[in-house]
Amino acid sequence: MTTTNLADRAVDLGEWAKSTPNATTEFAAAVRTWLDENLAGDFADLKGRGGPGSEHEFFAERLEWDRHLAAAGWTCIGWPVEYGGRGATLEQRIIFHREYARANAPARVNHLGEELLGPTLIAYGTDEQKRRLLPGIVDVTELWSQGYSEPGAGSDLAGVSTSARLEESNGSGKWIINGQKIWTSLAHVAQWVFVIARTEKGSSRHAGLSFLLVPLDQPGITVRPIQQLTGTSEFNEVFFDDAETEADLIVGEPGDGWKVAMGLLQFERGVSTLGQQVGFARELGNLTDLARANGALDDPEIASRLARADIGLTVMRAHAQRTLDGDVTSQAGAGSGASGPNPAGAASVSKLLWANWHRDLGELAMDVVGAPSLIGPAATAEGKANDITDPENVELDEWQRLYLFTRADTIYGGSNEVQRNIIAERVLGLPREAR
């Protein structure tokens, strides 16, 4: 058993593994022990809190938990050591996400910074951008949101119309941004947003786009939360009215926005999806237990659907493991770009698999619960009386929330139709859809 304290950012996990017999087993045990010891006291109440459809739950407390993780060196573990990471191997990262999910630890509040923007800056950013922005992601003092979709450009990202022009004077300059983004997750709690904007006047589709880093706390930006089917608001409309950002806060060169944006999307479907699948397995297990307890499992159709869900989860895991062999956010691959023979196709298959599986699980949950699924819980998560007649404040139980929120799974992050078009056109070589 190792005597090294792995909950220490000074320890290079990759180098430690090279010199440690049974490193895989010891690392898993260290993560599991740390989580067991630290998800205690006030943090114990956060187990299972947050996540899609529940981001409003205990946000301040979950932010404190994330900073507690950071202090122990458990944030950004897959980043290279020189950028504040831990140099973790792909296997170690998979283990960490699985152990985190198995511990039912709370949903992280800075996923967009740690899993998406950080690796993108490491791959495409300047040294100054890395020096300035990566530390705030590592210690969770700066939160990020994603400014991609627009009212007229949802899954079709190449249709964005938000514009930015560069104004220069006295040797310095700034980007002036105008337009609107929508479905901007967590913008109401973030300090920054990364924005795809059209910087070449008269350009269209993939050409003329740039990837800008924009501070949210300024007069030219208005953030308006959007109420969801679940009654909560975790995504927003964001309006840019002569909003500003510094000239050097552009990732890549002007016009490189499409390349950088597509690189970021490869990170989005990386190792963290394995932790997501552990959460899916917990949901399926809980639903099966409920079906057994309330007698729904005696219905052959319900039993068959639960069995098919289990098979689907196994397929999902196998696909994720297969496509992670060349994961670009590992220390060895950082900066190398997307890998594999067709990363776009692999990402689209992954999205189709999990989104449709999860949506179907929500529908199955309603059939397992039966008539009680029409009634809300008696109290909110904070212990207040629940008023099901007040659509602005009603709280749903876990199965109602699962059903309603998973209706969006096949839409956000690229709709089913767009994912199938990518596979048809870029993988199978079929004729492009008429546009």
What descriptors fit this protein?
435 residues; alpha+beta; Butyryl-CoA Dehydrogenase, subunit A, domain 2; Butyryl-CoA Dehydrogenase, subunit A, domain 3; 3 domains; four-stranded mixed β-sheet; Mycobact_Acyl-CoA_DH; flavin adenine dinucleotide binding; FAD; Acyl-CoA_Oxase/DH_mid-dom_sf; AcylCo_DH/oxidase_C
Can you put this structure into words, describing what you see?
It is a single chain. Helices cover 41% and strands 13% of the residues. By secondary structure, the protein is an alpha+beta fold. It folds into three domains: 13-108, Orthogonal Bundle (Butyryl-Coa Dehydrogenase, subunit A, domain 1), CATH 1.10.540.10; 144-255, Butyryl-CoA Dehydrogenase, subunit A, domain 2 (Beta Barrel), CATH 2.40.110; 269-428, Butyryl-CoA Dehydrogenase, subunit A, domain 3 (Up-down Bundle), CATH 1.20.140. The strands form two sheets. Strands 1-4-5-8 form a four-stranded mixed beta sheet. Strands 2-3-7-6 form a four-stranded antiparallel beta sheet, with no helix packed on it.
Q: How widely separated are the two ends?
A: 61 Å
Order of helices and strands: HHHHHHEEEEEEEEHHHHHH
Structural Rg: 22 Å
CATH class placement of the largest domain: Mainly Alpha
Shape: globular
CATH hierarchy: architecture of the largest domain: Up-down Bundle
User: Unreliable runs, pLDDT <50, ≥5 residues?
Assistant: 327-342
| Helical run tally | 12
The percent range for strand residues is 5-15%
**Class inferred from helices and paired strands:** alpha+beta
Task: Look at the structure and give the mean pLDDT.
Answer: 86
Strand order of the biggest β-sheet: 1-4-5-8
Largest sheet: 4 strands, mixed
The overall strand count is: 8
- Remind me, CATH topology of the largest domain? Butyryl-CoA Dehydrogenase, subunit A, domain 3
**Percent helix among the residues?**
40-55%
As for the number of domains, it is 3
CATH superfamily of the largest domain: Butyryl-CoA Dehydrogenase, subunit A, domain 3
